[in-house]
Amino acid sequence: MKILLGLLFLWLLSSEGNADHLEEQGKLKALRSFQFSCEQAMLPDTPSSSVHALRPADIKTVTAIGSLQRTPRSGVHHEDFLQSTGKSILEVSVETLAALISSFNPSVLHQSPLPGPKGATSDSQAIDLLHQAEEIVKLMKGNQMMDFQNDWKLITVFFNAEKPCSSCASTQLKNCILDNLEKLKAVLDFLYKKVPKAFVNLVDSTELTTSSLACQDYNSASNSGRNQCNYVDECSTLDDNILRWSYQDAWEKLLESEKYNQKDDFAVVLQPSFQERNLLLRPGRDGFITTSKTQVETLEEDYTIMAVGLWNNMMEPLGRKQPYDFTKMLQVRCPSQENPYLFTYRNSNYSSSLDTSNTKEISQERIYGTNIPCFDRSPSDTVPVSVHNLKPADIRVIAALGDSLTAGNGAASKPHHVLDVLTQYRGVSWSVGGNENISTVTTLANILREFNPSLMGYSTGTGKETTDNAALNQAVAGDRAEDVPAQVRRLVDRMKNDTRINLQTDWKLITLFIGGNDLCKFCKNPVHYSPENYTYNLQTALDILHREVPRAFVNLVTMFSIASLRELYASESNTCPKLLMRYLCPCVINPEDNSNEFKKLVYFNRRYQERTRQLAESGRYDATDDFTVVMQPFLMNVNMPKTQEGLPDSSYFAPDCFHFSQKSHSQAARALWNNMLQPLGEKTDNQKMEDEIVLKCPSEAEPFLRTYKNSNYTYPKQTPNYGSELLCEDRSPSSPPETSVHSLKPADVKIIAALGDSLTAGTGIASDNLLDLDTEYRGLSWSIGGDASLENVTTLPNIFREFNVTIMGYSTGTGSENDSNAFLNQAVPGAQAEHLPAQARNLLRLMKTDPRIDFSADWKLITVHIGGNDLCNYCKDPDHYSAVNFVRRIQETLDILHKQVPKALVSLVEVMDLLPLRQLFMDTQVQCPTYMADYLCSCVLTGEENSPNLTMVREATRAYQLGVWRLVESGRYDTHENFTVVIQPFLQNPKIPLGQDGHPDVSYFSPDCFHPSQKGHSQLAKALWNAVLQPVGQKADSFDFMADIVLDCPTQNKPFLRTYKNSNYTYPPVEPTNEPIENWGSDLSCSEQTPSSHVPTSVHELQPADIKVIGALGDSLTTAVGAKTTDKQTDWRGLSWSIGGDGTLETQTTLPNILKKFNPNLFGFSTGSSKETAGFNVAERGATARNMSAQARDLVELMRSSSKINFKEDWKLITVLIGGNDLCQYCLNKETYSAQKYVKHLQDTLDIFYEELPRVFVNMVEILEISGLRQIAASSSGCTLTAKNVCPCFLNPEEKSSELQEIKRVNRDFQAEALQLINSGRYEEREDFAVVMQPFFRNTLLPLDSNGKPDLSFFAADCFHFSVRGYAEMAMALWNNMLEPVGEKQTYNNFTHDRSKLKCPNPEKPFFSTLRNSGFRNSDLNLEKTELSVPYWAVIVAAVAGVLVGSLLVWLVSGRRAKRHQHKTDTEKDIKTTSL
Predict the structure, then answer these.
(1) Where would a tag sit more exposed on the chain, N or C end, judged by fewer CB atoms within 10 A?
(2) What is the reported pTM?
(3) Which residues fall within 8 angstroms of residue 1255, CB to CB, at 6 or more apart?
(4) Which residues are marked as active site?
(5) H or E stretch covering 1213
(6) What whole-number distance in Å separates Cα of residue 678 and Cα of residue 667?
(7) SS3 state at 203
(8) What tens digit of pLDDT does each residue of 1436-1460 get?
(9) Where on the phi/psi map is residue 743: left (φ > 0), alpha (ψ -120 to 50), or beta?
(10) How far apart are CA 8 and CA 4, in angstroms?
């Protein structure tokens, strides 16, 4: 039986101890968040007799002891904070563990832990802990509810490892550990002797402190006798981590020794510690100064997570336990059927970490000398003045900068002596150590001493960088790239202050190696440790050297591939301290294989290397002849050294398996020396550390340390030229000016423009880092950029400028599409096909309003490219991104251009096949941010090669391409001589560029490896130019980034931009498609569609074209739930009758699509089905009238904050329809859903608009009589079943029942009182505000099919919401109502499909009708003229759509009986209907 977690809380209220307090405080709320589904076990007949077979059900008592005070240096005591919250980690741990055990043994007791004394220092914690142990034993012995001798006890001991130590040296720290260990042993010895039947968890609670372990500033009297650390930062993170591990290691060895394993009823198990430090101060915490409820609850949640992690590890055998942190919610583990007990060292079959490995490791030789085979060791005849003529013997001073790898941490430590890694063996450091001589110690300094015995600056012995023997080895353990400038400063000062060094004349060799600590921490703050910041810090350091240190040769050693450390960590053939490795380098060790985190690590590592190379080869440090920086790449592609058995060889590493052993230091010194003698361009970049490395000698021809100059090496151009040469002789325009697009010469084009996405917007073209990827380099864009000239920037406009220097429209510089320098580049990053029509309208507006453009006379070339983002999202929503929708959106765009842009050739670049781009993200040798694949283009760049998603995208790509071909070759855009559309198909089959090594060449791409770089854009521009000159039917359908593309010239016999006609191309017959023949669009051809001559100030003179902004409030009818018959749940906001903007009026009738005929720049309509594209449609499914004021406020704020509209000046049209949900739920709460409340909510809503929105016309759509739903429901058994749940107050009552009569009356009250509000004059005082009741639903006639049954084609699949057809009818009726004078408005809806039903504004009075412009004053229209009888209401069931998701239509009777009768008569002539 599955145990519900709620039962645990019932146990808490009945258990011993603090039941009342638990109930009062609501303890363990966080535990409810955990999944716990263990099978309930039967209580054992007899408890286990052995602790090694102890089951959770055997445990009778749970308790804990621990000392968790904060150190004095942290300022606030942890216990003080915990007491202020009313709980402690001990309490939460005991309660959580007891609650979990209660599912196995409901009678388990929890013995509340004792509070420790406030203010105790960690020096007294062991004494306090022993006291707690004594007291808890007394309490358990005195507890009448337990049998102390026979009941099994679970005791958790939290022990804080903090200890003030005299210094950071390893010997003193070792004494600290032993001292601590003895005090812990006293506590465990007491429990071992005094407590029978006990399972003891030992947990390191050090992570709950904020201070450093190894170095603390204690000033209390109790510490006065100790030597104190001089300052807080004296000890590095390395010291801290090693001490943490050392405590863990000491405890583990103590427990493995079987000291506490002698009895069968007692066991102590060391449980893994937390990974996260500074619990109370980690991100998202406010510290522990305040104790707000939120903070307290969050802290309890953390403690609960910790306790669950402890429980889970109790279920895991030794050797498989995992550390845990507070960042992830854990799933509670259950005892396994095979091993249903708590794990101890004995029942885990655990082998001690002291056991030697069966796999042979190469032992560390203690002598690492080398022979120098060079005979010529002489210096130059005279001291050289050029760094490019520098011989090894000319070097007088050696120095080094870096981190612990240069400081020599652990370099000469004995195997397994982890604590000794804190010792900095600077004398054997690879790049600067000078212990002994080359015969016993191989270092770069000792090699150079063989050439110049007077060498100065090398370090000897051990110690920190501040010691005298460190000399010019100024590397600091734990330092990162940001710390190197400070090291340089100290180094320069030391050289200046050393009287033995002549700073001006002595030649200096300085080696810089840094980056390991940056990569180990990068995942904590990727921006801070970005490759850009890394190289910026290197540059800052090198700049100081360049500026202040003459005569210097700088070795810039490239960071190695740090991910190889994972092999050592994962190997089971060594005795590496795995926990310590996680401490030292979590960002490298912790990520899962092939995870995004791991891919990000590899990317950052490679970018560190690449940007280091770029910095060295920038020429920045070659301005003078006496200074240079040379990159030494021998570590760049180094692999983990292996044993003869092919396993990672830990003998190359210090005992922590992170730092180099002397064996590696020797090899690194040899490899660095050889690198220095290898010419640039020929340097080794993949040194095998396990190979024998023979020292090279300077060559006779070039006996110098190699630089770019003496290597005859040319640095790659930092700013390459991407210009082109155009060899066309005839660059003249047509004479006389050409009138046909089919005879258009390049020089005839005067205007150039472009639409599209980030490719055309220029995203990342000139970016050199990921942080710059939001920059749009529009001036470099392939199809529309106009920066510089063709001589150095190849773009389509720059080519055309060679024919016509006055061409306009191209973009320059950087910025968005709204910036003036973007000009006619209206592409938007992230745009999809559905956004293209809006871009076309913006382009149209810009061309019409720019005084430099003669819109009617100038020839225009418009490049359109879209589709990449559609394909990238295709697998997420294949319906939305279907080929049908894609082509429809392209058609809408081209229709706009075709209809409204004279003299234009539209170059439609075919959608690109994105699948080849996968090579960039699949090839592990390429420096691409593979971790960004999901963000950039998840449907293409992720997944297996033959996955369903890729198959879908592959098919969609071809369908997109085929659909666009069919559209263009239909002849739709060849109806007159001054316009055509030509497809340019060269991106149909792109070929990814490959380097000489066979791997993708990323130089053609921006740092994200997805957008092209300027190099790629140049190639695209050339291909596009050639495509426009190629005849239709003979155009290239492939594109090779690496091809040597020569710019073509127009042919002599046909010097035109090629079209189907001048190519003598005949369009093939259009194949039939599967698209439906009919749609629910409309035709509207009004003679006057222009706005008022000046923006009206009165709402009573408002014309359709004056509307700039549209919005809507309501329920599911306005969110358009179920508009598509195949989907009953999605909000198809783009199809909403009053606010949807999907498609065009020709394909879908909606109010915005009608208004777009008058104002193509209408803003605010919804598109698609996402809330992100809802625009100003704030309707929500399920809404009632009381939600309207909140929606109104949301809408006002959206409009006020929008940068796309002029809040004060733009005219706004808002449609409100609500009430269906109120009526359907009236019988459930008559007070809440009364007519009075309904109208009061409407009034509150309109008051908000009246008080806060300027220039508004509000459509209040009348709610219909919902009783008509009963007829629809009765037409189908499926409808009946759903309807009664959706609208019980209308559908459940019996016919002629009093309940039914009452709800009908309330329905009429809703209508009457709403009309009274609208006509009350309350909203008549402002000249720029009007509310008009639109009554088209008042006398709705139910449409019938040929069999006389309700025609369900007007309704969604649920029989309540409208279908696309129904919404189209509502939109037509609303539009017509808006144009009809008040008092003469149509009060029924004619549900027939007729594309010509839409009315045009009256030429004599082309305004939206209001009370005033209809000839009514407030006193003229009152309710006495309104008849409230309902002779023939046929309420359409769709109205009840409001039931499920919101209200429906607001109804009110304000028509005249004679007109209503006439409407009914007219309608019955047209359609077969029934009246209710």
Answers:
(1) N
(2) 0.60
(3) 1099, 1208, 1209, 1210, 1211, 1212, 1328, 1329
(4) 404, 518, 659
(5) strand 1211-1217
(6) 17
(7) strand
(8) 333 333 322 233 222 322 333 333 3
(9) alpha
(10) 8
